[in-house]
Design a protein that fits this description.
Layout lengths: L1 H18 L4 H22 L1 E5 L2 E6 L2 E6 L2 H4 L1 H12 L6 H31 L4 H29 L7 H12 L1
Antiparallel strand pairs: 1-2, 2-3
Helix pairs in contact: 1-4, 2-4, 2-5, 4-5, 4-6, 5-6
């Protein structure tokens, strides 16, 4: 029983520790990764340069600066995936680490493709840019996180429910 309480305590302390500095860790890791991978992909199609978090694309003698801001990196989406993972009980340590890495990797790939697609829309002066940007921002990013999480649950055969399983365990132990 002590082991279960310790597991709950450690998992939620990690969640708090990651959140307290305003998700700094996610932005520290994923901002340069996202920026550099997007730059490499866009450089296959256009002449471009990278200075800090701004990719400047030259197309038809026009310069298009694409700034990768924190909202583009979507640190809160990575945090939501971490919350879903760490708030779910009865997952062995190795499986949990594998699930975190896999979910982060899948979201990272989707996010990079989203930025590249939006950049193509922007450079082509497509009317779809604003619509697609808003649609991705308000709707699809959450849908992606949910799909990634449910896919993880199905693939890994997880039976616990985030938060609920931990609360239920604690409630039953306190009740006794």
């Amino acid at each position: 029983m002590k082991k279960q309480f310790l597991s709950i305590f450690i998992r939620y302390i990690i969640l708090l520790a990651v959140a307290i500095p305003n998700l700094y860790l996610f932005y520290l890791i994923f901002t340069p990764l996202t920026t550099n991978i997007v730059y490499l992909i866009l450089n296959l199609f256009y002449g471009s340069s990278l200075i800090e978090n701004t990719i400047t694309i030259i197309h038809n003698n026009l310069a298009y600066p694409i700034e990768i801001i924190p909202a583009c990196v979507a640190g809160s989406a990575y945090y939501l995936l971490l919350i879903l993972n760490l708030s779910t009980s009865k997952i062995k340590f190795n499986k949990r680490i594998l699930m975190i890495i896999a979910s982060f990797l899948v979201f990272f790939i989707i996010n990079v493709l989203r930025i590249v697609l939006l950049t193509f829309f922007h450079i082509s002066n497509s009317n779809l840019f604003n619509i697609a940007h808003q649609f991705f921002w308000y709707f699809l990013s959450i849908i992606f996180v949910i799909i990634i999480w449910f896919a993880q649950v199905k693939l890994q055969k997880i039976k616990s429910i985030p938060f609920y399983s931990d609360i239920n365990l604690l409630y039953n132990k306190i009740k006794k």
